[in-house]
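User: For my dataset I need records formatted as: sequence, then structure tokens, nothing else. Please produce one.
Assistant:
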Amino acid sequence: MSKLEIEEITVDELQKLGLKDTLVIDVREEEEFFEIRAAGAILLPLNEVPENAEALPKGEKIYIICASGNRSMVACEFLSGRGYSPVNIVGGTKAWMSAGNDVISGPISDSSYFSPS
């Protein structure tokens, strides 16, 4: 069995795309998301990805972020194997924050949770 080819992007490349019209899914746990997150990211913990995958858009890129890039790669491999177009964000939230990009912390609004339409 061959390993899936997963597209990857750096935080600098993602910043240039802008997060306003880009779907960024954060697959960390709620406590981690509460502590700090990329502004505009939507929370969908890794263990909830399988049950919510059908609600994700097919045919468009879905950017996946975690703390450092490991859990996001697991999510990307899962989604890629089901016909989605996930993009792993290399270095994750740690790299996003280190690069000086916009982050927020604290209470999580309802709009920050992934919710199937």
